[in-house]
Write a structure and sequence with these properties.
The chain is of the alpha/beta class. It has 13 helices and 18 strands. The relative contact order is 0.15.
Length: about 475
């Protein structure tokens, strides 16, 4: 019995519609513009959510992106695209107000609105579709993608299957809850919530007598500042704890930012696996610190509350680990703390806890179970990813599986950065089409990150670095 011939396959199916795959969809749509030579790939993108939403729980009033507005979905690869942020403003008749506002860093809520404008207009996006499994069909040289169509309540409505020559995985990250706090976060009585759900629980948290924020990154700082501004002077009853040795600013110097360039990504990818694994945690301040404007706003708000001679009822303590935690009756939480430098231990009783403890890549194991025999892995069991963002697969698989924001172990701290998503999408589409519809710059940083990168840039003059290196 022969298998049924699949329907006309797509050239690319995307799983997940966050900013990364939305960027890929927008740039793929650009290949269908009139006047372009070459066939445009056929695409379809699936997401289980009913519509596009970008970190809705953290769209705090006034909170801004940490990247300039040029880091939209397409501009750094195709500034003439109809899907740029500036074209969104033009469509909304807001271009002149934005011009006079002189804002290089836009608000998070505005970025979310821009992305929803793109998602509402692009063809080939299928929300309310949960992808359940993917597998390789060697008889047809195609990937099979099984999905469940969901109704408005998120319940299964119909099953479906589509076929594609290539996949793009953009399922994003999930909130991370440290092990000692997981039992508390699962129980409904005392608010112990991740910052990803902050706005949905804001009123409930504001009503709590004492609130503790855990985490020293940007999200923790924004939540702490919002709570501080909402509570009365002298009766704030706030505690902010962090594992880091200080409430540190994000590395935002001009040369420091060059770690988020294609030049650094290529350099990092070429390093040995052991070196890459050592570098990523050491570079936390490149992406886990706090924006200096937010630090300044927190200090200004605290200072304002001292004008009458008192001090705000606020505790800010870095260098603290939460060892264990438990509930006190049904109304409070007890945190067991350890100060890493002092070696001392203490207990803190609180009425609500906000976990600004970051995000982690969603595991691909379950989704890719049908592909597992074909996936080549590194010494830690992680998929190997080549420099075109393709999983390294068995040669018998003729299609490609591209990954988005799941390659920090191979491409470095820039993997989740919004400023690199257009470049990554362009890299994927160039590889997919076998052409160069989106030419990319040969150099993007003033820094030369490795001695073996010289051939990518103009050779030094005589007597410069090259002869010196040859004599070492």
């Amino acid at each position: 019995m022969t298998a049924a011939q699949p329907d006309t396959p797509h050239d690319l199916v995307g799983v997940g519609i966050g900013p990364a795959n939305l960027s890929l969809a927008a740039l793929a749509d650009g290949l269908r513009r009139p006047g372009r030579t070459g066939a445009a790939p056929t695409t379809a993108f699936y997401d289980q959510r009913r519509d596009f939403r970008w970190h809705p729980g953290l769209l705090i009033d006034g909170a801004t992106l940490q990247v300039p507005f040029l880091a939209d979905l397409v501009t750094l690869a195709d500034p003439a695209s109809p899907w740029t942020f500036l074209n969104y403003l033009k469509d909304r008749e807001r271009l002149f107000p934005f011009y006079f506002a002189e804002r290089f860093h836009i608000q998070r809520a505005e970025y979310d609105a821009y992305c929803r404008w793109v998602a509402d207009s692009l063809p080939g996006l299928h929300f309310g579709h949960q992808v359940d499994a993917v597998r390789w069909n060697p008889e047809h040289d195609l990937f099979e993608v099984d999905f469940t169509q969901l109704d408005a309540d998120g319940e299964a409505e119909a099953l479906g299957r589509t076929h594609t020559r290539n996949l793009a995985l953009g399922i994003g990250t999930a909130p991370f809850v440290p092990e000692p706090l997981r039992p508390l976060a699962d129980a409904p009585t005392v608010p112990v919530i991740h910052s990803a759900d902050y706005l949905d629980n804001r009123e409930r948290v504001l009503a709590a007598g004492h609130v503790t924020v855990i985490g020293s990154g940007q999200s923790g700082a924004e939540v702490f500042l919002d709570l501080l501004r909402a509570r009365p002077t002298g009766r704030e009853r706030l505690t902010w704890l962090a594992r880091t040795a200080s409430f540190a600013p994000m590395e935002y110097s001009k040369l420091g930012l060059e770690h988020f360039t294609p030049d650094y990504t290529r350099y990092f990818h070429a390093l040995p696996e052991t070196v890459r694994d050592r570098l990523v945690p050491a570079q936390w301040q490149l992406h886990k610190g706090i924006d200096t404007d937010t630090i300044a706003a927190i200090h200004a708000e605290l200072y304002r509350r001292t004008l009458d001679g008192g001090w705000p009822d606020v505790v800010l303590t870095p260098g603290v680990n939460v060892r264990t935690a438990g509930r006190v009756a049904t109304t409070k939480v007890e945190l067991h703390l350890e100060h890493t430098e002092q070696g001392t231990r203490s207990r803190l009783t609180t009425d609500a806890v906000i976990l600004a403890t970051g995000y982690q890549e969603r595991p691909l194991t379950r989704l890719l179970a049908g592909l597992d025999p074909y996936i080549r892995k590194d010494s830690a069991g992680r998929p190997r990813i080549d420099d075109h963002y393709r999983m390294v697969l068995d040669p018998s698989v003729t299609g490609s599986v591209y990954v988005q924001n799941a390659e920090r172990h191979t491409h470095g701290v820039g993997a989740p950065d919004l400023g690199l998503i257009a470049w990554r999408s362009a890299t994927i589409l160039n590889a997919l089409t076998g052409e160069t519809p989106y030419p990319q710059p040969t150099r993007t940083a003033f820094t030369t990150f490795g001695l073996d990168q010289r051939e990518q840039h103009p050779r030094p003059a005589a007597g410069d670095l090259l002869p010196l290196v040859e004599h070492l």
